[in-house]
Structures are given as C-alpha cells and as structure tokens.
Design brief:
It is built from 12 helices and 11 strands. The protein is an alpha+beta fold.
C-alpha cells in the first residue's frame, strides 16, 4: 500500500481504500512510463536549442561586429515581449530598410511547414510595423525583407521550396566548418504561378531579384563573409536549461565553491550584444535565478562571498554545464511523473466518489473500481 496522504475531498474512513487504489494506479503508470526514451528526447531538445543558438550567432555576427552595406544588428527575437510569433533577429540600415531573420538549424522532410511558419511570422511583423518603429528603431521603416538562415546542407532544399511556392524569402546558408555565410540561390524544378514574366529567361531574372537583397552591395558583402558564433548567449524564448548557461559562463570560484552574484548575471546579459532594455535585463535575470533554484542548480548562500552558490562539487565550466543539463533532465522527468500522480489522484477520487453515490442509492457493487488506464 502506498503511504500517501489523500486529498481533503476523500471522506474520513476512505483513506485506506484511497491509498490502495492510488498505489495500484501509480504503480501501473510508472511501470509503463517510457523513462529512457523521454530522457533521450530531452537530451535531443538540448542539442536542438544549442544548434539553433549557434546558428543565430553565425547570422548576426557580421552585423554585430561591422555594418555590411550599412546594416547593423538591432536585437534578437523582436516582439518576443508581446508573446506573438516572432523572428530570431532584426537588422536595420540608415535608409530605413530592415531585415527580419529566422534561423532553422534543420529542415523537416516537408519543407512547406517551414515556409508556412515563415509566412505567419512575416504577417505578424507587418502588423506590428508601427510598434517596431517606435520601440526598436525610433524611425520609420521604408522597406522590409525577410531571410531564413540554415546550414549549408539544408540550403538547396528550403531555397527551392521557397521559390516553387511563390514565397518571398531570401535564403542565407552557413558553413560551420569554414565559418562562412552567403546567400543561397537555387534553380526551381517548376516556376511559381505568381511571376509577372512569361519568358523563361525573364522568369529566372525575376526570381533572382525576388530572392536577393534590394541593396546590391549587401549581396556582394555576404558572398562567403567570415562569421562566428558566441553572440547569442541569451535568448528569452529558448528552453531554460539553455538560458541557464549564462550562470555557468559568469560564475566564479571561491575556495572551491562555484558561486555567483546577481550583478554578475546582469553584467553578462547586458554585454551579450542583444540590446535589451534595463527592464528586460532585470526580468531575464529574475527568471534565471528562480529557474536555477527550481531545478536545484542554484541556492542562496549564507556567506559574504556571494549571494548564490551553484549546487555542485565541480568548478570547471564544462563540468558545470553537464551538471546543469543533468539537473534539468531530472527535473523534467520528475515533473512528468508528478503529472502521472495527479492523474491517478483525480481518477481515484472520481472512482471513490462514484462508488459512494452508488452505495447511497443502495446499488453499490463489491467489485473494486478499475484504476488502470484505459
């Protein structure tokens, strides 16, 4: 019998019955719970986030370190504070042209799902044009362009899908081995229906204009331009384990104790080249500290040397990142199991209530209610 306290809705005298039925239910659910595959999925989710963050970094590096064709990096995840579908980065030049970019570290078998997602985000960006002008740029937008960035091995696939569906997005590709970025153009196997030209050569020219930048010098400067990763360390919409890398990166060691102060995190976030406001930085830091405590990676330290200590015997950054990932996986697994416990509680309470009603009407049955999942 499971030693668990019944909820208050279980009447006095029913506690033993509740524990027996609950124990049977949770034993069955935990036995059937695919823990190993869930752990593998969570590890894969971490890897996906890591590749996505690196690709964003590759995309914005030339514009954070310089100004190709006058374009400069403005912010990552514009509109994320509104909770609407948003692009991964925003670029702008003094002539009033902006580029919204979306990074895709992998392309699914059906590339059309990516194009559909991009179309949705494009419409959202257009709908919030005035907000972007006022909150990010301080000037009017004269021209909008939209980019999808992927790794070079996926470039032709998404570029062809974009062309053949008639969508208007420019494809950038990144070669992580050579740390280079360039514009990828692909020849379609069929022409889209929304071209003005009719002659095949003219149609190809129209596609060429549609899928390259209006500013010709930008096309030239993005011809295998050197790039790098490490620019995008703080992405508010990424999973919390990826964001908590900030704690590892900004930690210090005091007498073999890895530790950190709030101001250390604030400084790291502020210097991450993502141009957040002071208010947003404060919100991000609060979220990181609370999340770190929640997964038992951070705890308050009653010591003058730091406000928080990292809950680990390791001090090296690589080791601490592994500890962070392990703790997050364990926290997520336990959260999934808690959901199963809640399901059993609801099921057993409902069964006992149903049985009590039958007993009150004198039609109760002696058979125990079935608490195994259907």
């Amino acid at each position: 019998m499971t030693n668990v306290d019944p909820p208050e809705s279980v009447l006095e005298g029913q506690e033993t019955k509740y524990r027996g039925l609950y124990g049977k239910c949770i034993h069955h659910k935990l036995r059937e719970f695919p823990e190993q595959s869930k752990r593998e999925n969570l590890r894969e989710e971490i890897d996906v986030q890591r590749h996505h963050r690196k690709l964003i970094s590759y995309s914005i590096f030339p514009f954070a370190q310089g100004e190709p064709a006058g374009y400069k990096f403005i912010t990552a995840e514009p509109l994320e504070e509104l909770g609407v579908p948003n692009f991964d980065f925003l670029l702008w030049n003094l002539d009033g042209s902006v580029i919204f970019g979306e990074a895709k570290s992998s392309i699914p078998a059906s590339a059309s799902t990516v194009v559909n997602q991009l179309q949705e985000r494009k419409e959202v960006a257009k709908e919030h044009k005035r907000y972007i002008e006022e909150e990010y740029l301080g000037s009017e937008i004269a021209h909008m362009e939209f980019v999808v960035v992927t790794y070079v091995n996926h470039g032709d696939k998404i570029a062809k899908e974009i062309i053949e569906t008639g969508a208007e997005f420019i494809t950038w590709v990144v070669d992580a081995h050579s740390d280079t970025l360039w514009i990828r153009q692909a020849r379609p196997t069929s022409f889209p229906d929304n071209l003005e030209a009719e002659d095949p050569d003219a149609m190809l020219e129209e596609l060429d204009r549609r899928h390259t930048h209006d500013v010709a010098s930008l096309n030239g400067e993005l011809d295998r331009v050197t790039t790098s990763f490490g620019q995008a360390d703080v992405l508010p919409t990424s999973i919390i384990v990826d964001r908590l890398r900030v704690v590892v990166q900004s930690r210090r060691v005091e007498d073999r104790h890895p530790c950190i102060d709030r101001e250390d995190i604030e400084e790291y976030v502020s210097n991450s080249a993502l141009n957040y406001t002071d208010e947003r930085i404060s919100e991000i830091v609060n979220e990181l500290i609370e999340a770190g405590k929640r997964i038992n990676f951070l705890s308050e330290w009653e010591d003058d040397r730091a406000e928080f200590k990292i809950v680990s015997n390791y001090t090296a950054k690589d080791d601490l990142e592994r500890v962070l990932e392990d703790k997050w996986v364990e926290w997520r697994i336990e959260d999934m199991k808690d959901e199963l416990r809640d399901e059993c509680e609801e099921r057993v309470v409902a069964e006992i209530g149903k049985q009590r009603q039958l007993d009150e009407y004198g039609v109760g049955v002696s058979k125990e209610p079935d608490t195994d999942p259907a």
